[in-house]
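Q: I'm building a small set of examples for a reading group on sequence design. Run inverse folding on the following structure and report the sequence directly after it, with nothing in between.
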């Protein structure tokens, strides 16, 4: 029956919202739960502070004496904040965050409790991580994985309902030294990018070049649904999305939610959420309603990629936990509701250092403009050469629902530069823009040109990879994904391009070219070989799909089944091994893990489709039919016929789906993936079509599942 659905509506409409309370001023709470340099300076000797500061800022190794002192200070600080436990937190190859808690406590021989936390405990933990998917990287004889503190990412206190845990950001590495996580390759990709960028900048005549780092600012979209509804929807609880549900008569067509007033209950939640982020040193900057009803966005200010990635994982955890406290289920799934906009994560990315600044910012002098053109050209070359890789690193079962649907960037990777910058690149290609032969100064005036472009009206929202004034924005990333995978791919493709540019630039300069002419020669060649990836038109249009395939030679990989095998292609294996970011073995294990995640996700959904259709939807139809009795015979348009037909069609599809799920024999992982992406996903849609038809036929009073209009609009 519909009891749980009606009860949900009753509960929601009769519960008083959590009182808004005045929050503490920002300077009181900012980073108050973080053991950063400020806290270290307060509690360490000058010598010890100098040593740890050097490690934090340059990644230099930490000697064991300093580690002991830092550990002791960290423990005292954490215990003063109520922590009795510590945990090494790490980021396995799935998009999850993992941790294991250990007490500070040890007892001495007379049974008294003392606390202990040494440098070696801080630096190295040994979790029993053997059940994390590792894509056969760890055979059982070497099944131990180690976590090791990443001192460049500060430790912090995670508050729980009745306690506090000192949390230590860590890498996760196998006994034999292979990366089992997403942090190690991210750090390596930064190093590879830095090494190549140093070469290019030296050739450009720069003499004082600080270490380059990548930066990331991620915009996070999410839905909030009252948890009373969620509890009546097994699909939301188990898979994060609705596997059934007819469209609401009112959806997002009025666009009245976008940038509209934030509902009060949500505002109270956001304030609480953001205060928690501030305590953790996460610079929450903007929040607003998103396009779909019930959808919102939070964007912190950008930070260095490694810290941004850790903070992004933490943000998702805090988001879900805080929502729960406010009676919401936070949905990070890319497509919780069919026919309503999905959620993405826009990954804003740039590279720079303290001496040259942001290399993707055109700057104010011709020289800075030339550096900018080279780095921008490197990105163009990278996206063209490794577009399929960028597609592969955002390939998940859930993101497939979003890519390619006309609401999100297409699964074809192209670069948007904006009219004016595109013209600069094309003019260099055709020779229309050239270095004056009389040796006069060239006036590129790029910052003037591009400032104009920052007008949001000029933004192309249909591009998966857009230049937005001083950074690139990778928009096709999934909302529940870690940002690390995309950052690793972008940094690594950039490293590859900058290596190529360094070699080409050196050859030009050795051949006697002046720097501006040498840069133009490099850009010209990039545009000739890779300019096909630059596209400023409507990425949603059918013409673009045709043009991309037929004229531009760009790949369209609509599903994960097509995208994931890219990780095994020779050019991708070569990219990662030549840059030292992932060995062939490490890369192969990633394909296995991502493929396994895909299989598990689809299998859970398929089983649940069968179960919900059989045990919830079919009985609702039958119970309605049983009430019609003799009335039905007197009606001209018999509702019984329509309901019977839809119910029979649904159960016939359920039978086919049940058989499909049982298939176990596949020649390869690839064959298994395509079977799931094609047959199984197709059958799930077939069941759903019949079920959604029934939703329109069976009386509201007996329908068991909360409806779209209820979940999206009742708050
Ligand atoms: P929009 O919605 O217009 O794309 P937002 O202001 O919501 O913009 O988000 C932009 C994100 O990009 C923020 O996280 C911001 O800090 C980040 N960002 C800004 N400049 C850079 C940069 N140079 N490198 C990386 N990220 C940046
Ligand atoms: Mg954006």
């Amino acid at each position: 029956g519909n009891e749980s659905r009606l009860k949900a509506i009753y509960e929601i409409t009769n519960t008083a919202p959590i009182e808004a309370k005045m929050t503490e001023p920002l300077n009181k709470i900012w980073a108050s739960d973080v053991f950063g340099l400020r806290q270290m300076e307060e509690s360490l000797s000058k010598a010890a502070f100098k040593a740890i500061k050097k490690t934090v800022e340059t990644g230099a190794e930490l000697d064991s004496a300093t580690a002991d002192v830092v550990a002791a200070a960290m423990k005292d600080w954490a215990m003063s904040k109520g922590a009795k436990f510590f945990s090494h937190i790490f980021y396995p190859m799935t998009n999850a965050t993992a941790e294991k808690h250990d007490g500070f406590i040890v007892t001495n021989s007379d049974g008294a409790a003392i606390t202990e936390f040494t440098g070696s405990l801080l630096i190295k933990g040994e979790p029993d991580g053997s059940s994390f998917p590792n894509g056969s990287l760890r055979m059982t004889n070497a099944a131990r994985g180690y976590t090791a503190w990443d001192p460049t990412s500060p430790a912090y206190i995670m508050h729980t309902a009745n306690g506090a845990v000192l949390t230590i950001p860590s890498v996760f590495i196998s006994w034999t030294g292979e990366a089992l996580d997403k942090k190690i390759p991210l750090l390596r990709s930064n190093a590879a990018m830095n090494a190549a960028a140093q070469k290019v900048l030296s050739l450009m005549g720069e003499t004082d070049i600080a270490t380059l780092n990548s930066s990331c600012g991620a915009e996070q979209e999410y839905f909030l649904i009252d948890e009373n509804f969620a509890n009546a929807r097994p699909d939301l609880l188990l898979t994060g999305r609705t596997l059934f549900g007819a469209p609401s008569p009112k959806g997002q067509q009025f666009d009245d939610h976008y940038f509209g007033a934030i509902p009060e209950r949500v505002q109270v939640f956001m304030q609480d959420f953001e205060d928690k982020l501030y305590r953790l040193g996460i610079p929450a900057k903007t929040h607003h309603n998103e396009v779909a009803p019930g959808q919102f966005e939070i964007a912190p200010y950008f930070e260095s990629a490694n810290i941004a990635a850790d903070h992004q994982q933490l943000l998702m955890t805090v988001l879900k936990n805080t929502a729960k406290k406010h009676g919401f289920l936070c949905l990070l799934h890319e497509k919780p509701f069919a026919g309503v906009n999905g959620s993405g994560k826009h990954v804003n990315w740039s590279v720079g250092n303290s001496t040259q600044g942001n290399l993707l910012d055109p700057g104010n002098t011709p020289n800075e403009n030339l550096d900018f053109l080279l780095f921008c050209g490197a990105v163009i070359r990278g996206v063209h050469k490794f577009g399929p890789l960028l597609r592969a690193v955002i390939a998940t079962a859930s993101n497939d629902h979003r890519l390619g649907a006309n609401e999100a960037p297409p699964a074809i990777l192209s670069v948007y530069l904006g009219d004016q910058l595109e013209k600069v690149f094309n003019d260099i290609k055709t020779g229309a823009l050239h270095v004056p032969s009389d040796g006069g100064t060239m006036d590129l005036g790029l910052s003037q040109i591009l400032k104009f472009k920052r007008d949001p009206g000029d933004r192309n929202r249909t591009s998966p990879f857009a230049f937005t004034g001083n950074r690139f924005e990778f928009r096709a990333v999934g909302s529940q994904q870690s940002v690390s995978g995309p950052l690793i791919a972008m940094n690594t493709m950039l490293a590859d391009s900058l290596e190529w540019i360094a070699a080409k630039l050196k050859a030009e300069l050795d051949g006697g070219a002046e720097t501006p002419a040498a840069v133009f020669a490099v850009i010209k060649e990039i545009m000739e070989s890779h300019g096909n990836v630059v596209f400023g038109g409507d990425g949603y249009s059918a013409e673009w799909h045709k043009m991309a395939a037929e004229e531009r030679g760009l790949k369209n990989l609509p599903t994960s089944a097509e995208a994931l095998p890219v990780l095994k292609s020779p050019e991708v294996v070569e990219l990662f091994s030549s840059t030292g970011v992932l060995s062939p073995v490490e890369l192969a294990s990633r394909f296995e893990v991502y493929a396994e995640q895909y299989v598990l996700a689809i299998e859970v959904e398929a089983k649940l489709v069968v179960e919900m259709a059989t045990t919830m939807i079919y009985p609702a139809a039958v119970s309605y039919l049983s009430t019609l009795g003799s009335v039905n015979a007197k009606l001209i348009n018999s509702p019984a016929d329509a309901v019977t037909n839809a119910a029979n069609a649904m159960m016939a599809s359920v039978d086919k789906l049940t058989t499909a799920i049982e298939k176990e024999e596949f020649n390869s992982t690839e064959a298994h993936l395509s079977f799931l992406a094609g047959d199984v996903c197709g059958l799930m849609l077939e069941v759903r079509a019949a079920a959604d038809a029934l939703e329109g036929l069976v009386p509201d009073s007996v329908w068991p599942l909360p409806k779209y209009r209820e979940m999206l609009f009742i708050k």
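Residues 219, 346, 473 surround magnesium ion (ligand 2) (CB under 6 Å).
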